Please model this.
Amino acid sequence: MDRGKSEVIFFPFRDDYTWEGVPTKNYKSPDNSWLGVLRNEIVKTDEIHYRYFEIQEGGYSSLEKHQHPHIVMALRGRGTVVVGSRVYEMAPYDVIHIPSWQPHQLLANRGDVFGFICVVPARRDRPTRLTKEEIEELIKENPELKHILRY
Ligand code: MN
Model:
């Protein structure tokens, strides 16, 4: 929902992890880099986009990098977040800041839907997918990633 800075916006939460007046959409254009990701763009102002994503069981976001940072707060279920070669387990209300240019991927844990708020600047660069070499480099740093990353 595109709104101006001076407008009060109130979206009541519903029990099913949606907000009144906010449509649920599939994430981005279809390619093979992500699976089972739903997107609710709760508030879009000139500065900030405040989105709720939900990754279905077995799903994952694109393994990507970009200049803009992410601020993520887990809200539903448990998920795994890879930032660079490090792995973070997230449960509701955990927060992570993913800095500029750090490769990252978010994945739903087994048996869980992983829902989270992700805040990004309104003006941001397009994500780039990692090259084969970059992925190999990450796995060299942390061999555990071989069993976590999806690409
Ligand atoms: Mn990203």
The chain has a mean pLDDT of 92. The chain has one domain: 24-147. Residues 132-141 form the longest helix (10 residues). The domain at 24-147 is CATH 2.60.120.10 (Jelly Rolls).
